[in-house]
Design brief:
By secondary structure, the chain is of the alpha+beta class. The protein contains four helices and three strands.
Length: 94
C-alpha cells in the first residue's frame, strides 16, 4: 500500500500528464521525454519508474493514452483522442 504522500504525488503526476496532453493533443513522447520535459517542479522529483507506472496505468487500465512501439525498446505515449471528453471531465472533477 502506498503512503498518502506517494499517492498524492501519483495523482498529481497523472493530472499533469493528462493536462499536458489535453493542451497539446498531438504531443507524443517516451517515458524519458515525458519525465524530462512535461513535468512541473511539483513532480519533477519523481522517479522515472513512477512516471512509467502512471503512463502504463493511463494506457492499459484507463485507455486514455495510446502506446506505440518505436525501435526495439522505446514506446511513444500520446492521448487517445477518442477519450478526450472523458479525460477533460476527469480533470475538471479533480
Amino acid at each position: 500500500m502506498q503512503s498518502d504522500e506517494s499517492s498524492d504525488d501519483g495523482a498529481l503526476l497523472i493530472r499533469e500528464i493528462l493536462n499536458h496532453l489535453v493542451k497539446h493533443p498531438d504531443a507524443k513522447d517516451t517515458v524519458d521525454g515525458i519525465h524530462k520535459f512535461w513535468l512541473s517542479a511539483k513532480t519533477a522529483h519523481l522517479s522515472i519508474d513512477k512516471v512509467n507506472e502512471a503512463l502504463e496505468f493511463l494506457a492499459d487500465e484507463k485507455g486514455w493514452l495510446n502506446k506505440k512501439a518505436v525501435g526495439s525498446a522505446a514506446i511513444l505515449y500520446g492521448i487517445n483522442k477518442v477519450r478526450v471528453e472523458e479525460i477533460q471531465k476527469f480533470l475538471r472533477a479533480s
